[in-house]
């Protein structure tokens, strides 16, 4: 049977040691990420690696500030609590020695221009865009990055929760690349705990349909 142990090594890690990760190791991980498939081979990704602890902490403060601002718009106390209770999870990256921001570039799905030429309805256009193929490219790269990290003994945590502050984060780091937006982020570091439990997965029978 094929050995797939490398897949099961990946866990969502939220506590890290202060051990430094070398630039060489980071380049190895990003190289692995860029081996992911991408539609039209566009490779519409860009990785920002932040090792400056002060900058990482400042990004966490930006997320905290935006969370507080968003919560202030809510009159419903239950909805406000739902937003604020996740803040501690949205800022766990401040515990890591490295933070990687993954940006996605623009991507025009196959058939989009044809639908425009046809004068397609907004519903038809939205239906074509629904699978977000350009973001799927980023997801594939992120998965490669996380699997490679686990194989090399590092921990990661796929994060999209803090993206309500993506504009503020991008402005803070000064990243400018036409058409690119912050799509995901992950801390990287040596896990404090070796035995990390994953939440249970749905039975394969519940998520699998075989048509023969």
UniProtKB/TrEMBL annotation:
<dbReference type="InterPro" id="IPR000415">
    <property type="entry name" value="Nitroreductase-like"/>
</dbReference>
<dbReference type="InterPro" id="IPR029479">
    <property type="entry name" value="Nitroreductase"/>
</dbReference>
<dbReference type="InterPro" id="IPR050627">
    <property type="entry name" value="Nitroreductase/BluB"/>
</dbReference>
<feature type="domain" description="Nitroreductase">
    <location>
        <begin position="7"/>
        <end position="189"/>
    </location>
</feature>
<dbReference type="Pfam" id="PF00881">
    <property type="entry name" value="Nitroreductase"/>
</dbReference>
<dbReference type="GO" id="GO:0016491">
    <property type="term" value="F:oxidoreductase activity"/>
</dbReference>
<protein>
    <submittedName>
        <fullName>Nitroreductase family protein</fullName>
    </submittedName>
</protein>
């Amino acid at each position: 049977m094929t050995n797939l142990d490398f897949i099961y090594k990946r866990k969502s890690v939220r506590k890290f040691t202060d051990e430094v990760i070398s630039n060489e190791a980071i380049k190895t991980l990003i190289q692995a990420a860029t081996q992911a498939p991408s539609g039209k081979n566009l490779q519409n990704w860009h990785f920002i690696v932040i090792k400056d602890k002060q900058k990482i902490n400042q990004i966490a403060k930006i997320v905290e500030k935006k969370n507080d601002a968003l919560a202030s718009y809510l009159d419903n106390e239950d909805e406000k609590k739902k937003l604020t209770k996740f803040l501690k999870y949205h800022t766990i990256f401040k515990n890591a020695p490295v933070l990687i921001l993954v940006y996605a570039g623009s991507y025009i799905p196959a058939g989009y221009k044809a639908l425009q030429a046809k004068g397609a309805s907004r519903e038809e256009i939205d239906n074509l865009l629904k699978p977000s193929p350009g973001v799927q490219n980023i997801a594939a790269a992120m998965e490669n990055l996380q699997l490679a990290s686990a194989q090399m003994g590092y921990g990661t945590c796929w994060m999209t929760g803090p993206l309500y502050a993506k504009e503020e984060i991008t402005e803070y780091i000064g990243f400018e690349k036409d058409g690119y937006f912050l799509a995901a982020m992950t801390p990287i570091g040596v896990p404090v705990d070796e035995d990390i439990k994953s939440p249970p997965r749905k039975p394969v029978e519940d998520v699998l349909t075989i048509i023969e």
